[in-house]
TrEMBL record:
SUPFAM superfamilies: Probable bacterial effector-binding domain (SSF55136). It comes from Rhodoglobus vestalii. Pfam families: SOUL. This is SOUL heme-binding protein. It comes from the Bacteria. The lineage of its organism: Bacteria, Bacillati, Actinomycetota, Actinomycetes, Micrococcales. Transmembrane segments: none annotated.
Length: 187
């Protein structure tokens, strides 16, 4: 079984779940590609890191999801976002919960870096299907509508999470779109 990123379910609001994610560490890389190719281009760097291409030459268990977001050249505390077509995407593997940034082995490739993502409140929507830009856009529209209907306020831009290996038939794939939301609803 692949370890999944933990979260606490705070509420279900129509078609969305409101979740509280704890602080966690990701190994990430930035690639220049369109939406569909970004994950493939990033995979070899990230898989290399968890396969031992790190200072400890340590294998790290694969976890899910793999997250993908449109890169933004802004302050490190800003959320990673995904919008637009093509460009630079940040793709990240969530490290097992047993790691913090100090205990995770350092990457040996300059393309991979570690980052601590602070605890946050997130609205999420699950869906099945292909990992395509059009599917992402369609589900983001639904997610943001659900967030508005629930009286929540977004922080930053949505991102994409995929949970299954590429060989999984698209109709069986577990995917999600997510967006950070403010602690205090607008209702």
């Amino acid at each position: 079984m692949t370890e999944k990123q933990p979260f606490d379910l705070v509420a279900t609001e129509g078609t969305i779940e409101v979740r509280r994610y704890p602080e966690h560490v990701v190994a990430e890389t930035e690639v220049s590609a369109d939406f569909e190719d970004a994950g493939n281009r990033a995979f070899r760097f990230l898989f290399g890191y968890i396969s031992g291409d790190n200072t400890a030459q340590q294998s790290i268990d694969m976890t899910s999801p793999v997250v993908q977001a449109k890169s933004q050249r802004v302050a490190m505390t800003a959320p990673v976002v995904q919008t637009g077509a093509g460009g630079n995407y940040t793709v990240a593997f969530v490290l097992p919960a047993s790691f913090d940034e100090a205990s995770a082995p350092l990457p040996t490739r300059s393309e991979v870096s570690l980052r601590t993502v602070p605890a946050r409140l997130v609205a999420a929507m699950r869906f099945t299907g292909r990992w395509s830009k059009s599917s992402f856009d369609k589900h983001v529209t639904r997610l943001l509508s659900g967030v508005t209907d629930a009286g929540l306020t977004t922080i930053g831009e949505p991102w994409f999470a995929r949970f299954d290996p590429p060989l999984t038939p698209s109709f069986l794939r577990h995917n999600e779109v997510l967006v950070e939301v403010a602690e205090n609803p607008t209702k």
